[in-house]
Amino acid sequence: MRVHVDRAVCENHGQCVFAAPEVFAFDDDEVLRYDPSPGPGLDEAVTRAARVCPLRAITLDGGPE
What pTM value is reported for the model? Predict the structure, then answer.
């Protein structure tokens, strides 16, 4: 699965961080960082993170819908 966050849309609400902290996190400057290629064991959490994003800034390629 590939993860992409549209930074022009993302407003750092952090719902993805709560849903999939293994993949999404804020750095010391409160900028969202994420793993664009998380392992297959994280598909469910990443899918949940994309669904809870209030701005739909997260898109997934090659994973469950």
Answer: 0.90
> What 3 state SS string does the chain have?
CEEEECCCCCCCCCHHHHHCCCCEEECCCCCEEECCCCCHHHHHHHHHHHHHCCCCCEEEECCCC
- What is d(CA 30, CA 62) in angstroms, rounded to the nearest whole number? 28
Per-residue tokens: 21: 């902290």
* Residue-range domains of the chain with CATH: 2-61 (3.30.70.20)
Confidence tier at 65 by pLDDT (50, 70, 90):
very low
Residue 39 and residue 43: Cα distance in Å, rounded?
A: 7
Parallel, antiparallel or unpaired: strands 58-61 and 2-5: antiparallel
